[in-house]
Fold this sequence. Notes:
It is built from 16 helices and twelve strands. It is α/β, with parallel strands linked by helices and about 425 residues long.
Amino acid sequence: MQIKTILNRIQKFKSFVYGAVRLVEGAPVPTLEVEIQPRSNSRPVCSGCGHKRPGYDRSPERLFEFIPMWGHKVFFRYAPRRVDCPCCGVRVEQMPWVSGKHRLTEAYSWYLAGWAKRLSWKEVAEAFRTTWDHVFCSVERAVIWGREHQDLSGVEAIGVDEIAWQRGHRYLTLVYQIDSHCKRLLWVGEKRTVRTLLRFFRWFGKEQSQALRFVCSDMWKPYLKVIARKAGNAIHILDRFHIMAHLSKAIDEVRAGEAKELKQKGYEPILTKTRWLLLKKPENLTETQDTKLSALLQYNLKSIRSYLLKEEFQLFWSYASPYWAGEFLDNWCTKTMRSKIEPMKKVARMLRRHRPLLLNWFRAKKQFSSGIVEGFNTKAKLTTRKAYGFRTYRAAEIALYHALGALPVPKTTHVFF
Ligand SMILES: [Zn+2]
């Protein structure tokens, strides 16, 4: 059987035929070249308007990289025809195996993009003996196509989240769809300002924004402002994940300050290596950690009192009625304000300020667990942190859409992997 026969099975073109297949002598890696010829009597299609036009001349042969096979790089070799188009002028013809001026065929590009969902971009480049740029370019093409073809109808619930990006305080704003039937990343924007989120709503469209029923977010002021203005019909929920994250951050601050203070005063370093004891959920502690925590609880330390306040706050989420949850919240805040622990007081003040939005969680019947946003947040951090070699915002953005966007891919007759 000839290689041509296989090619005709996996990817047949109506107006073109595969010609000779040859091994390239002296190539740095084993390489196969497959000739392509236009079918006789077929007329070229103008790449500008997509109409069949009379031929003008032929440009020099070009190579288009196809999916490698048996340790061989595979290239299509073809001399594109130029058309004389009454609308577009002299133009190169449309070739079904490639789009635009790309060097990689569509099939190979989608193939690399597919692998880039499972491996890091660097690993894909190594595995297929190609460059990081080719992998990036393939993923970018997949993302652009996917975003042009995604269906945005029926989005009723969104979650707004942020992640720190690179070192320092640079942020990305992420908007997720969190409906029970569909969870995916919808949009990524640089920074976390009013303008960032306004850009999301502009992209999402007025009609769709008005149709939103639930929006989950953190207590970040710019977000609150924009959501109130642009998604007026939605119940705005401050989700559990973000609130507990504020408490964890406060505890961390108290613990670090106190550990330093104790050290300066020459006390036993009882707080060293306790960071995770105080941040982890009690049920996730190991037995040794559990023993250590019990010992620690005997000291009347600010860190410990903060920890107990946070644990107590967990009860808030178990209420069924917004009324009683509100009562609990007020009591907890009063108690925390009396604690004289500044980072905790700061959280209490913030919770007080957002009391109505906090209680919306109960009005929404708790149908949005913190797990959705939290899960996405973890995955997003992992995606940007992985050694993809992100130096630019564009690369981070593309990686996030590719990993979390659940984007559609074109239907093809043959599946290459
Ligand atoms: Zn044309």
